[in-house]
Amino acid sequence: MLKLIELEWRKLERKKVIGEAITYWLILMFLPVFFLKVVFADMPNVRFGESYAAALDLMISIQMGFILFGASLINHVFIEEYKNKTIALSFGYPLSRKRLVMAKVLFIVLAVFIGTLLSFGVSGIVTFALNQVMDVIPGTPTAADLTNYAIRMIIHSIAAALASLIPLFLFGIWKRAVIPTVICAVFLMQFPNFLGLLRITLSPDFLYVIFSVLGVASIILSIKFVNKLGDL
């Protein structure tokens, strides 16, 4: 399985994918301070800037932007190969299609997990450094704040990796459509905001659990029905 995952990495346009990941990191690392300093500055009901502990929820929601990176990888790893017929070569190996799809899924999960984890780390460091100059979050992070941040960055990186695969079955393997895959990812990223506009209160952590379950369901369906969705 590790060799199959490595093969997926080698088949990618690596410079393009790495460049895309770096773009996400550069944008996401500055967004927390931007939102606290500019967007939420005149909103007294928004309390993300009260403390480092309060800012954590904002950090989590921003880093879930890596769900969009997962949609991009679905395009590279599945949709483009279907459209270019190169996936037929992979399915010609003396291995089951289900095993090959599982390797592709694991590759995307690992890539999004590592990308999100690094983004959490870089964003946390940049937010702390900028806060020393701009003073948007009062006080200093405590040991409890840092521990909580480390734990939740791991948990929510897993959630982002699984949630990014929600479009896989319907739009990646069945419909093989790029634009709906991206739109689905954008919708998932913005879904908490939609709930806020509708005045529906739902715990963000509970919402990410639902996303993770849906992502796992999409993975299971993709593996189970890959042999029944027409050729390739």
TrEMBL record:
Cross-referenced Pfam families: ABC2_membrane_4 (PF12730)
Annotated signal peptide: none
Membrane spanning residue stretches: 21-40, 60-79, 100-129, 149-171, 178-200, 206-226
> Is the Signal keyword given for this protein?
no
Which keywords fit this entry according to its UniProt record? Membrane, Transmembrane, Transmembrane helix
Name assigned to this protein: ABC transporter permease
State the organism of origin: Paenibacillus illinoisensis
